[in-house]
Amino acid sequence: MPLRHIAIIGSGPAGYYTAEAAQKAFGENVLIDVFDCLPVPYGLIRSGVAPDHQSIKGVSRRFEATAQSENVRFVGNVRVGRDVTIPELRGLYDAVVLATGAPNDRPLDLPGEQLGNVFGSAAFVGWYNGHPEFAGLDPDLSAKTAVVIGMGNVALDVVRILSKTEAEFAGSDIVAHALERLRKSRIERIVILGRRGPHQIMMTPKELGELAHLMRASPRVDPADLPEEGEDALLEPGLRKSVVHLRSFAAIPEEMHADKPIEVEFDFFAQPNALFGEEGVEGIEVEKTEVSAGKATATGETYTIPAGLVISCIGYRTSPIPDVPFDERAGKFANDEGRILPGLYAVGWARRGPSGTIGTNRPDGFDVADKIAEDIAAGVLGPGGKPGGSGFDVIAARRELDVVSFADWKKIEQAEEQAAREGAPREKFVDVEAMIKARGL
Ligand code: NAP
Asked: Against a cut of 0.90, is the pTM above it?
């Protein structure tokens, strides 16, 4: 079996699960380059997973084992589509797998979306997680009311981060600039807007349950919004458990709410219509909905919520890459179960869209490795003998690309660990230059 070369674009969970699967499928007969546009690996694990969910971030240890195996290379600080093109990579490698995730916010497409202090969750999460693109976001947390749009797990992450005390961030890797800003936050009320009802939330039980244990915030659900309890029996088990949490929030007595200075209010059947304000957002106009057979219909009844901060957590889109067919409507690469073009594949959110947990990417990785093996067997990928990484190295040298290796990353990581405040695992570098500089320490 001739040696095969695979380029994986993106070093997040989808990327490293694919590398692991390709190693299992091809053993010693494969060399894998994992590219990332940042000088640091792990994508969503580093920049998306909430900083207070360190146990979820632990999966990076598994990816590190893959990254350090002999036939896998990390090729950091290289933006595919700019520094090297997809046709070039397809010429060099037998298979190119796009594992670029979905790093852009889905737009709200509402009037007033461009007002100050209105952010999508990719930007806001990127800010508190120190993603270089969003580290300078500068959100103003001085208003009393924040509105979070969407009832998924990302909305929960954002609500938790806005609610926690400094003590509750102990052991997290929230970046210093965010901690500093949150320390001065004056937010007293966080409204979570859901355009459908309690039976249609996307929040999972464990994550939703965390809201009940916040030191200074208390979740509030209007009992009138809850369906008859008997109707819960028809829900799938995970959602049923989440609804049990909502019912327990609805039963919290008034005096217990009074003990906590921040109210987290679930506003169901509430569809955002417009944001208003002069320069910065001052409020949001909402229209009541009715839900029938899971579908929301606007009723014409509107009201406004004054708000000085709005964060929409309504999903993500993949970034297009030149020369790759893109499905505009779905916001992901156009693909047939992972196949885009001969020798070009997509995995993870770039393939499926932004749903599922980190573990969902594992079967995706194995599936694409199987498809590559099938395509090799069918002769679609040619006889082998392509140059792979050594061919890329020639291009990198010619273009003077400053490629960051995994050994470089380990030095950056060490510098981040050394800079950590007490009890924290790391203090992340939040700009690319600082990351690259730390490599030389
Ligand atoms: P999500 O689960 O798809 O939730 C998106 C929410 O936004 C839904 O409530 C949706 O309502 C609402 N929405 C969409 N478009 C809207 C619009 N135009 N106006 C108002 N509301 C709108 O997405 P997510 O929260 O971004 O999460 C993405 C994935 O990552 C999910 O699979 C999630 O479970 C996962 N995740 C997991 C964790 C964890 O396990 N700890 C943490 C974060 C994220 P409709 O249902 O009515 O469309």
From this structure: yes
Buried/exposed 100-117: b ≥16 CB within 10 Å, e otherwise? bbbbebbebebebbebeb
Residues 197, 291: Cα–Cα separation, whole Å: 7
Ligand 1 and 209: CB distance under 6 A = no
Which residue's CA is the nearest one to ligand 1's atom 1? 152
Q: Which residues of 188-217 are buried (b: 16+ CB within 10 A; e: fewer)?
A: ebbbbbbbbbbbbbbbbbebbbbbeebeeb
- Let me know how long the chain is: 441
Residue nearest (by alpha carbon) to ligand 1 atom 31: 355
Instruction: Determine whether the shortest distance from the Cβ of 105 to ligand 1 is under 6 A.
Output: no
Give the N- to C-terminal CA distance of the chain in Å, as an integer. 42
Cα distance between residue 343 and residue 120, in whole Å:
34
pLDDT tens digit string along 148-176? 999 999 999 999 999 999 999 999 999 99
Q: Which helix (H) or strand (E) holds 439?
A: none
Nearest CA to ligand 1 atom 11: 150
Six token digits for residue 379: 């002769």
